[in-house]
Amino acid sequence: MVSSCSRSRLAECARRLVLLLLLGSLAACSVTKDFPSLMNMFSDDESDEPRDEYSAYTEDQFAEEAKIALGEERWTKAIQLYEKLEARYPFGPYTTQAQINIAYAYYKNNEPDSALAAVDRFIKLNPAHPNVDYAYYLKGLINYNRGLTFLDRFVPTDPSQRDPGAARLAFRDFEELITKFPDSRYAEDSRKRITALRNNLAMYELHVAEYYMRRGAYLAASRRGAEILRNYQRTPAVPEALEIMEAAYRKLELDDLADDIGRVYAFNYANGVPAEAEGLDYEPALAERVMRSMGFE
User: Does 96 fall in a domain?
Assistant: First the structure.
């Protein structure tokens, strides 16, 4: 009788348990139906994040759109497209061209540091590429134009009065191109730029020597003149460098040295100063003229 009672209680408990489970399931369905946001709070759905407009682009589409952007001089857009092309298709047929085009777009977008990093990367990854000479040429152009300011692009200025650091780098870059690729299609233009750079660097030294003369720093002026004779022979700055050196030695009462320089000048320019060296009288830059007018030296 006890065992029969126990069995009936167990059966009753089981029925109640099943009923509670059913009620719990119905309640859960009701909550889910009425408050769907509660279910979404902990989901991993990222549908609210901005969609990548290029997610469905093929390699050909990237290459074509980037080429169009480059042709239309939309440099930032071209950079974005070429970088995505390279990231998604690192071994595709357009990747190598994308690497050098990125460097060019950065250069045209006035981002020289990024342009140099991109062109150095191209040279490192593609040392035997048939157009790697262009990469060296582009590297020279980046440094050649690196010192240009917004004003310089519209108002004629004396390039020899800019910071010579970038000019020296450009000189090195163009020389490297000519040394490695003497028959390159870019070699002739590089030689012309090297000549211009040498003249500008020599003139920069001349401006500094003139400044030292005006300040009465005659020893420093003579050393700058000697620098021109050592490193920038056959440039238009040489005759005036000799004149500065002779004048500086006279001021320092080093007449023997001054006489030696005078004889060198007379020997080399017995028939007068070459035409290309005429008109090199020091002309201060606009900023320097303004500073002088305010009483600063």
Answer: yes
| 46 inside domain | no
Q: Is residue 174 part of a domain?
A: no
Amino acid at the residue 163: D
CA distances from residue 118 to 63, 64, 69, 104, 182 in whole angstroms, order as listed: 18, 21, 18, 9, 24
CB atoms within 10 A of CB 252: 14
- Looking at residue 58, what DSSP letter applies? -
Cα 284 from Cα 289, distance rounded (Å): 6
- Count: domains in the chain: 1
Is residue 82 in some structural domain?
yes
Q: Could you identify the residue written with the tokens 């035997």?
A: 128
In the chain the first and final C-alpha atoms are separated, in Å, by: 122
For residue 241 the two structure tokens come to 């460098």
pLDDT in tens, the chain (297 residues): 445 555 566 566 666 665 566 555 555 444 444 444 444 544 454 455 556 677 778 999 999 999 999 999 999 999 999 999 999 999 999 999 999 999 999 999 999 999 999 999 999 999 999 999 999 999 999 999 986 544 444 444 555 556 688 999 999 999 999 999 999 999 999 999 999 999 999 999 999 999 999 999 999 999 999 999 999 999 999 999 999 999 999 999 999 999 999 999 999 988 877 765 544 444 444 333 433 343 333
Domain range spanning residue 95? Answer: 56-111
